[in-house]
Amino acid sequence: MTGKVHSNKSLIATFKKVVVTPFLSLNNSQESLLWDQISRHYWRLITCLFWILTAAFLLYTHRHAIYWLSLSDTDDNLRLAEVRDWLHGQGWFDLQQHRLNPPKGANIHWSRLVDIPIAALIAISQPFLGSMGSIRFGTAIAPLLPLGILFFGNALTCRRLVGEKSFFVANCLLLCAGVTLGMFLPLRIDHHGWQLAFLSLIIAGNADPDRKRGAVTVALSSTLSLVIGLEILPYIALAAGMQTLFWVTNIRHAQALKYYGFTLALTSLIGWLIFASYANRAPVCDALSPVWLTATIGGGLLVALIASIRAGWAFRLSAAVIAGLFIGGIFAYSWPQCLGRPEAISPELYKLWMSHVGEAKPVYSRDIKVIVLILSLPIVGLISLFPALWNNRFSPRIGGWLNLAFIFLSALAMTAWQTRTSPAAQLLAVPACCWLIMTLLKKMDKQKTYAGMLGYALVILSILAVASSFIPLKIVEYTHQGHHKPFFKNPFSKGSTLPSHRAEENHKVSENKTPSHPERRCPTIPALKSIEAIPQANILTFIDFAPRLIAMTHHQAIAGPYHRNADAILDVHHAFRGSPEQAENIIRRHAISLVLICPGMPESSIYLNEAKNGFYAQLAKGQVPPWLEAMPLPKESPFRLWRVKAAANAASRQHN
């Protein structure tokens, strides 16, 4: 019996030494002191190694998709087209996509900031890898750069809010945020990853015990994010409010508020001057423009001015409120058109197009599996948040925790408006989850029995299984056996997700076999070869397919899913939904020479379901109007293609 007890004690001691001690410092053992030194002085190196290993794993698992250049979203494809156009001589400030809606072009509200690393990687590697090889290299590596910033910002936040040793647990938890990590996968070259990376730095800056350094971090990160886009504008506003609140509660933070205000005003002006496109120099509402410079420059200078007030906290609070109301009033008076949705789309455009965009739908409207993937981690974070706030209520860290709470709760609430806010909600749930697990590890370290240690270990594993969606998904699969619903890996695509590498590898099917989902092969390079072989043409095709078409071929299209081009988007919808006569008028007005469809793509189901007798529905049934003639394609091609015949009465049609 004595030997058994000794064996159990030895096992418990070994478990603590290997699993618990590296994260805690409750004793003065040699191992604990060593980990203290490592976590204090080498946490950056460990985080960097963690990022490199994660990046290597992602590159390996996506190697086939990289080879086939299977860009997974419409924005990724258009971003590649924009970068290639820039490398081939298009102007720095010219962000018009001239191969959409020619000859006018499509107005794109992005900036060149995200294009820089992609273009640099392509240009550097092209002499060694060739044209396509350099594009594969650039599009694979570029999304992993903001991933490194994300790991660093997340680790920094948890070190400041939870404890020095929490950084490793924090980044392990980040791997549970599948929707967030989906924004950083190889080939995911759109700007969402950079926005999330800068958001992590904003949270880390407001948690910085050095208020001056934190203020500058928040201001710089806010400016860089605004230069890219307005996606995290609500969180930037909350972070600005928290910077002001730090000063209201403690007058010693006046200098930090000045740093924040002046830095935000100066850097936003510089960022606008360097990166604003020709279109964004006008008072537009959906990008950093003179409209939002009113808030960043005016608001920044105003908070820097009121920071000179030497009075009690009540007077400082009143001054802050008055300053906020003054800037808000100036904004509302100067730009009343920007008080609503920044996209400013018409009701018709919303009904026909935006209402079908997945990322613009509320989370509760999505498939049950998508809901589970999105909300599992935030729900665990929500449960952990309030005990963490209570535990730190008298701590100097409470300001950082309150800032995190406000922004996290806002992101979580906004998922009920649009799904696109859920990656931020997952990211912001990580620090609270990290606090819970570190707390449980401390309790585990105090256990004297093997059963107690095992109990806490099982609790921690269960939390991780729920946060990573493993257990919730298993429950859903069990309760929905035989009940199949559409489920896409990427719930944030503006349109159809592009195929995996398997669709590319299985493109050349034998003649006696029919592929189960031929539409999945439409965006693939092998399928597009026959389209590329046709002389350059202006093509009427699906809105969600147009970015892939112009990125992978030399052809032109009418519209992609970009709200500034409302008329062109409506023309495509009116053509496919309307009568053949209406479609012909639109086609000839846009000088369209080819009509290209891919039956079975998600967008086609919209036209079939909502316009059962429309132009597309008739084409799908084989009812082709006389002004179109079929063009030959390879037998295995998933496309259907028609040439537009010359108009017999062109003069009268032009007059009409």
Molecular structure report:
- The structure is a single chain.
- With 656 residues, the chain is mainly alpha-helical.
- It has two domains: 42-70 and 109-344 and 362-438, no CATH class; 521-644, Rossmann fold (3-Layer(aba) Sandwich), CATH 3.40.50.
- 61% of the residues lie in helices and 3% in strands.
- It is built from 29 helices and seven strands.
- It has helices spanning 2-20, 30-41, 43-61, 63-67, 74-87, 115-141, 144-161, 167-174, 178-181, 192-206, 211-228, 233-249, 254-275, 290-306, 313-334, 347-352, 368-391, 398-414, 422-445, 450-467, 470-479, 501-505, 525-532, 546-552, 566-577, 580-589, 602-610, 615-620, 650-655, and strands spanning 96-97, 106-107, 538-540, 556-557, 594-597, 628-630, 640-644.
- The strands form two sheets. It has a five-stranded mixed β-sheet with strand order 4-3-5-7-6, with helices on one face.
- Helix 5 (74-87) packs parallel to helix 24 and helix 18 packs across helix 19 (422-445).
Task: List descriptors.
656 residues, mainly alpha, Rossmann fold, 5-stranded mixed β-sheet, two-stranded antiparallel sheet, 7 strands, 3% strand, globular, disordered C terminus
Q: Please give the number of β-strands.
A: 7
Question: What's the total helix number?
Answer: 29
Task: Write down the Rg.
Answer: 28 Å
Strand order within the widest sheet?
4-3-5-7-6
Share of helix, binned:
55-70%
Silhouette = globular
Keywords: Membrane, Transmembrane, Transmembrane helix
Protein name: AcrB/AcrD/AcrF family protein
